[in-house]
């Protein structure tokens, strides 16, 4: 399987501060990888560097076989790289339906957009039931569903998610995991940052463990979950 997204030896951060240090990472077409690690280890910065939001000091990023190292985030979205940020990921004062329409802002095929809104309602019936509700009135789980559905409206080939399970109830975590599975099975590759290590390692195929900006470990998610040393040293799983 070829790679949809790669980063080679990237050094990234903000201003003059180097946070991500010499990291190489890849996501296969239709793949499903997790990036885990302690608080402040640079996971979000790594994701932002891939998207063009953080400063890239060194290294190379490719998407769909094209060099996107110096590209701006609006262009990567249009190329099919989707992003669900950790916070402020919906427009609270717009309805669910309007949020989905906003998710298609890079597109100019009205009929296709309409069909995709219907497709999202099929995938997320919870959202269809409340399509005229303001996003600000939704529960945490519903809001996260909307954020994901909104990102899917751009028809991404790969979707990067920053802690999609954070602050959710056990039930909502399982609902979001089910939706992510459906999205992945429909062909969109996933790269997911998570603090809920146990749950994400049970879901993802491969994982990277980032510690103080450097890759400490990578491999099949199941192998990392069973690795006693990794569980104790990096994952807080004991
Ligand atoms: N916009 C920013 N400007 C300057 N430094 C930042 C910025 N955002 C994050 N940092 C710093 O970068 C380091 C890594 O943060 P980052 O959010 O990438 O880690 P993380 O692994 O995603 O952490 P968490 O799991 O807590 O979200 C931290 O020391 C943080 O203070």
From TrEMBL:
Gene3D superfamilies on file: P-loop containing nucleotide triphosphate hydrolases
Q: Which InterPro entries match?
A: AAA+_ATPase, ABC_transporter-like_ATP-bd, ABC_transporter-like_CS, BCAA_Transport_ATP-bd_LivF, P-loop_NTPase
GO terms of molecular function: ATP binding
Entry keywords, A to Z: Amino-acid transport, ATP-binding, Nucleotide-binding, Transport
The keyword Oxidoreductase is annotated on this UniProt entry? no
- Could you tell me which Pfam families the record lists for this protein? ABC_tran
**Domain ABC transporter: where?**
5-237
Q: Which PANTHER family match?
A: BRANCHED-CHAIN AMINO ACID TRANSPORT ATP-BINDING PROTEIN LIVF-RELATED, HIGH-AFFINITY BRANCHED-CHAIN AMINO ACID TRANSPORT ATP-BINDING PROTEIN LIVF
Q: Which family does it belong to?
A: Belongs to the ABC transporter superfamily.
How is this protein named in the record? ABC transporter ATP-binding protein
Source organism per entry reads Candidatus Dehalogenimonas loeffleri
